[in-house]
Every structure is written in C-alpha cells, then in structure tokens.
Amino acid sequence: MSKKLLLAASITTVLTGCISTPAPEGVCHSSTAINIPQSEVKVKTSQGKKAIVLPVDVARGVDNPSIMSAAFQHRLESQVDHSGAKLVDRSLAGKLKQEIKLAEESGRFNTSGVAIADYAVLAEVTSASLKYSFDDEEYKTDDDGDTKYYPAECTFTGEVEGIVKVVELPSMEVVKRIELSSYEVSIFEQDRPDSDCPISNGQYKRIMQEAAKNAVNRSDDLKNQLAPSGVVEELRQCDEYGTMVRVNMGTTLGIRHEQVVEISSVEQVTSPDGNQEVEFYSLGQGKVAEKENRQGLKARYSWVGIDPENALKIQRGDFVEARYDSGCNDLPKMLQGPCWDVYESFQG
Asked: Looking at residues 301-317, what average pLDDT do you find?
C-alpha cells in the first residue's frame, strides 16, 4: 500500500471509529409523537446569551501583529456568532479587558454588578514562525524505464500558537483556558533553483493568516467551549426510523448533518453554602439526521437520533449541546493537517 493510501486509511479510521450513535434516515410521522413531561428547570442556552470578544493581544517579537490579531479576532467572533450568542459592541471592550486582567492579578472577583455579557473571550497570539525546506530538481526513472522531471520546490510551514480564555461575567472568573497551536504548509515550485527559497510578502502573509485561522478553527476544546446549544422540543418513535428528538438547533447555528450532540437533564439544587445552582446530568449522545434526510435538518431545528433506552428519561426542555471530537489533534503532528483537511471536507 502506498504512503498516501495508508495515510488516508489511518485518517478515515480516526474519523469514523469513535462514532456509533445512529443518525435518522428519515423523520417519524407526527402521529408517532410521544407525550413527555416539561422540565421544571429552564436553562439558558447559547441562543439566549450575550458574549464579547475582547481585542486580541500579540506577544512581543511576533511579526505582523495586526495581521495575527485580526485573524484570531475574526475567527473567534465567527465561532461565537455560530453558537447563537449575541455579540456585544466592541466599544465596551477596553475597560472590561483591564478589569478582567486586574481581577486575575489580584484574585478578587466580583460577586455582583451589571453584566454587559454572559461571558467574555480573551486571546493572545504567543508565537508565530515561518520555516522552509528546499528540494532540488531531479530526474526519476520508474520501473518501465520512463524518466520524469521533478522541478525544485520550496516548502514553507507557518506555525502559530496562542491562548484563549473564556471568562464568566460579571464574576470575571476564568472558566476555561485553552492552548491553541496549528500550522499551514505551502509548496512553491522554483523556476530557478534557489536554496534560499525567496518568498513574497503577500505569500508570507497568506501562509501566516491561514496558520492563525487553523489555530482557532482546529481546536476541539475551543469548539466545545463555544458550542451552540438548545433544548428538546419533541420526542417521536417509529419502527422505520427509530427514536428521535426535535431540538431547536439548525443550520443557522452551524449544525450539520450527522452532528453529534450531548443531551442532559437539568436540576436545580442547593449548594452546601445555601446558594441555588443548576446541575446537568448526561442522558447520552445523539446524532443529527443523515445527509440524505433533507427533512431532518432545517434552519431553526433538527431531528436527532437517540438510544431508545433513553426515551423514558427525555423531557421537553432538556439541554442539548453540540459536541466536537475530530481526533485529529491526538495524531502525530505531521498527520494533524491532512486529518483536519479530511474532517473539514466531511463537514461540507
């Protein structure tokens, strides 16, 4: 087996080996709807939240800081927007950013106050570098005796690293800290073989922008932290298509066919210090309708296949959240890029 085929087989195994939840091939008729109780606790989903993405910092020594900052900012805002959260005006960001940094440094967090948003996203580009390698021109003869010319090539690899913090408001407590790292590879043929590998400023910027974009977009941890969420609206069950729930999450929130989601029941409890808190209890995972099922995914809702054993546990209003697990970042670095290319092609 060739190296390319072996690589493709390995990546396909990673992408398909961990998914077993059924995706509905069709939608059960309305007559198969099952009457289910209403959850007593109403939970705020991503669609009812406000968020603010603060101006991205860039560490000293990073070239083209404005380009790196803009690339991170755009991708982070795009992820928040896809979650259904409302983005708050950036004009409020400056003061808030200083208050959050002061709270982190002092260890003193607010327990009250007016929240301009439910959470804030802070990010910093910590490093960015461009490396290259040179392969000289050569002639190769195959088993049939045919000779083929291979021109000289320069391979450029742009690498970007960063940190993202998600901060709860108004308390200003950091709920998640995520390290980002990714790269972009470009290969240019050399008409005049030059081992110094000259590169234009435009080519350099494009590679580094793509690397920055990949750092944000190719983090399962970040995707899950900023994931769209909704609630169960209806339960149906039929012999032809199995057990499924309708959830108020569709393509406007970036939901795609065969998207994996986590379904949880919600309960209000009293903490040891007497405060009221909300706890989530997983009822298992489900999968959005398959691609051939056009009625299973709409702009504002989708039908999700679930394990029939969980049907009796489902309530209207149960919390549903998209889950992402590409498996790509667990692979050796040289395989992560090709794996993500395949994964993203599956996502459409």
From this structure: 94
